[in-house]
Structure formats: structure tokens, C-alpha cells
Amino acid sequence: MSAIDITGVVTASPSVAAAEVTPPGSEANYEAPAREALVVESSRTEDGGLLFTVADPVTGIFGTGTAPLDAVQDLARAQKEHQEVLEAQESLSFALEEQLRYLQRR
Asked: What are phi and psi for residue 27, nearest 5 degrees?
């Protein structure tokens, strides 16, 4: 397997609320809800390695790692920690209530 260079910025955003797919030659029909897009960036470290950052633009929460999967896992950990902090509060502002609902849906 060869390595793929994905340096730079990659963004994607759904244009519809759900995507429906029927694979060629199949009777199956799949529907998946669209979600807010994550922003993926990669940068070179001082020692020449790569550092990946995956950010959720809705919350501003991000994760980093030396591989894309590591960055996604770090983001998931950070989102879970933030959700737990919000859930532990006695009261939240409207904006933070919305953010909590968003995190609970993800």
C-alpha cells in the first residue's frame, strides 16, 4: 500500500439533509443522515513529520495526532470531555444548551 500525501486543508459540507445510495446491481437502498463537516488540516512539524488537526467548526473543539485516525480519536475524546462538563452544570446559557444538544446528537 502506498502513502497518500494529504497536506493542506480539506473541507466538506453536506448540501442535503440525507444521502440516498443504491449500489449498482443491488436491490439495497441506503440512507444516511448528513452531518456537519469536520475540517481537516495537516502541517509539517519542525522535525519534518506531519501533524493532523481535525476540528469541528460548530463547537471549535479540535483534536490532533500524527495520523488522521489519531486526530479523529483525539477530537472524539475532547468532545466527550466537553459534553461531560456541560452535562455537569446546573444551568447553561442558551448557546451552551444548543452546543450540548449538538454534542449529544453526534
From this structure: -85, -10
